[in-house]
Amino acid sequence: MLHLKTFGGLSVSVDDAAGVGAAQQRKTLALLALLAAAGKSGLARDKLVAYLWPDADAEHARGLLKQACYALRRDLHQPDLVLGTTQLVLNPAIIASDVQAFEDALERRDDAAAVALYAGPFLDGFYLSGASGAEEFERWLEAERDRLRQRAAAALERLATAAGEHIDAAAWWRRLAALDPLNSRVALGLMNALAAAGDRAGALQVARVHESLLREQLGVALDAAVVALTERLRAEPESSQPRRRIVVPEAAVPEDAAPDRGEAEVAAIQPDVARAGVARRPFVARKRLPLVVVVVAAGLLVGGSLMFGVPFRAHVEAAAPRPKRMVVLPFTNLGLAEDEYFADGVTEEMTARLASSSDLRVIGSTSAHVYKGTKKAIAEIGRELGVDYVLEGSVRWEKPKHGAARVRVTPQLVSTADGTHLWAEVYDEPLDGIFRVQSDIAQRVVRALNVTLLDPPRGVVQTVPTRNLEAYDFYLRGNDYVSRGSDVVTLQAAARMYEKAAELDARFALAQAHLSKVYSRMYWGYVDHSQERLAQAKRSADSALTLQPGLLEAHRSLGLYYGLGVLDYDRALREFALAEVGTPGDQNLLLGKATILVRHGKIREAIAEYERARQLEPASSPVASNYGQPYDLLREYPRAESLYTRAIALAPDRKEPYLLKIWLYLRWDGTTQRARAVLDQAQAAGVADERSVVYARVLMDIFDRSYDKALALLASDAPEIVVADQFRVVPRAQLYAFIYSRTDHPALARAYSDSARRILYKKVQADPDDPRLRTALGIAYAGLGRKQEAIEEGLKAVELMPISREAFKGYHHAWEQARIYTMVGEYDVAIDRLAYLLSIPGQLTPAWLRMDPVWDPLRSHPRFQKLVGGGQ
């Protein structure tokens, strides 16, 4: 049986395994989605053509539809998958879809089953990449997405009003609030349910959140019914709160309403705000909520218990006191050397638990790790990190030959001002007591520092992630690998550890969340850029949320999936906002947000997030090097230089900051002198043999017109693919071809261009949607004089990854497109592209254009001379 998932994404599976071929291509997936949404009635061929191939002539479009149906039948091995002649319909005996199951559940009035199927917005994150005429499909998708969201919301309200237990009612109302946080009727329902369950504070918090949303987004006052309930709850003492269920009056629905309750359902969830002088707002009016809505509304999603600490409608006049700052130093491993990862894992978990407090700023583990095994005094560490307190200690994992394993943890909390020990303890527990120990330590620290810890942070501190200690061990090993870097071997090893943890405990939500993050990083960095890997990232994150609803780490995982995988930046930022409610001091979250903002082209906003991360990770080399990149893109080179220099000083064995500084000097200076000095530093540090560093060395020889040196380096140190990162794929043959083209060896240049073409053509056939391969193939075609094919490949790369979709990667492909136009003699078009690239944030500079022989054919062109600042 085939299964089509449309809620929360779009994918086809065959007996729980992902489909291949046509089942992973966007046009054919869109065809399946259209037919699934049409249900038993199906869709006419002409309508399908209008949605998917509106720009093609009628005969060609019908042929394309026929080919798409054939490809699906072939690759899914189901000749009867699509039935009908003029009206096409999916065969329900062969393929089932969640959207049809959702509609069926509503038709039989099984609301619980329907909302269980609604795992997220319809076709969430799906788009037709670079498709001509995709606007028709997008319009249909937006309307269908809104219709299904309305039906899910109406089902949730019916469940909430019919729930027999107050706590169940609150849970349904809360899910509905996530769908429509500006709906006053929903806010009132949630408040009533919480009040009836005895959670007066939670009910009042809902009112505060809802008032903020209405004021910020609509500029209107709070609904009179919400005001009245708020005042009554504030007036009544806690003990007098009734423990009975308070029913929200249902909207009038005719008793003889038809089973298809679409319009009645929409009416039932409209906020009754007429009494407050507010016009009724249709549910479908808001396609996307701004980020501020999500940040505030997140209080509703995670339990409605974030306390502002001020009277209702009051303003805080005085500035809030500076949060206390502390660092958790790496706990010393007193056990076997092979248990080092366990001690580091305990330290990491303690850091994460304490970072969940909004009143405490905890220095990140990367900066803390710098002090592992240090002999520095506490006061000195305090000055260097700017912290008020240090939590340090030791861990011993005892593994006797006979009897149960035990763990001994000895933490102590010290003031950096005077070295006073504020609290110390010795824990000697069975190994399965490690979570209880971690929880107690965090709570004792919180009490010692007089820090307020409210929900949901309290839940983070007290959580027990798994009862399976072997699974927890593999989870910690996965964390250890993640901390080592992001190369292929490390990420693959981390994935294996998390996979094993999830296999040993199928309910280990945290392991699933971390596994999702690794999968997203593998996809983003082209370690494994398959659609199946991306789908696995989504499935793991969804599984984590199913196992533990509201898990903050799962929202962070979804943020990476949407931001690095499907490039839906608004959705990514909404997920990060949900996670940040419970972990306001998490530097990894801030880094994730900053990365997404850079890719979104919002460079200045990214800088603000990087600065927040730097304050929590002052001794982190990755934070410093990442922080420098937005300044680099803005061409504010002195600031970028300072941050790259610091990144090298903090971790001399990391190659990335050396490379970033090399490229910076080349862009800034237009000469190789300072860049070569950095290369010498990398050589001394032992990282100059990395492939990406070899590539930089070859380019600098090319820039200096030292072509013999470049050829010698390629012959001795370069593999067949010199570099393959998230921006480019550069075969060795491509570099040979360019060098020989500049040294009057046209036959050799052509031979090497053809060699590069053969390598790249095979790769494009295997992955036609990889813009890096399209760009490289275009350059190879240009070297062969195949002008039209070269231009088409360059255009395809830019269509697949335009700057508007990914500012960082898209910029590089536009740059290489200008190179292709230059190689094929389209000089004016090339100069147009270059002028545009110089006008926006990016890596290209006039100095680089003056230095790089790629642009030699343009030297005599007056427009190019003006662009680079003078004659050549």
The class by helix and strand makeup works out as alpha/beta
Overall 3D geometry? Answer: globular
Number of strands: 16
The average pLDDT is: 83
Alpha plus pi helix count: 39
The portion of residues assigned to helices is 55-70%
Radius of gyration: 30 Å
The biggest sheet amounts to: 7 strands, mixed
Strand content: 5-15%
End-to-end span in angstroms? 67 Å
Which regions have little confidence, pLDDT < 50, spanning 5+ residues? 238-320, 454-462
What's this model, at a glance?
The chain is α/β, with parallel strands linked by helices and 872 residues long. Strands 8, 9, 10, 11, 12, 13 and 14 form a seven-stranded mixed β-sheet that branches. The protein has a four-stranded mixed β-sheet with strand order 3-2-1-7. A three-stranded antiparallel β-sheet has the order 4-6-5.
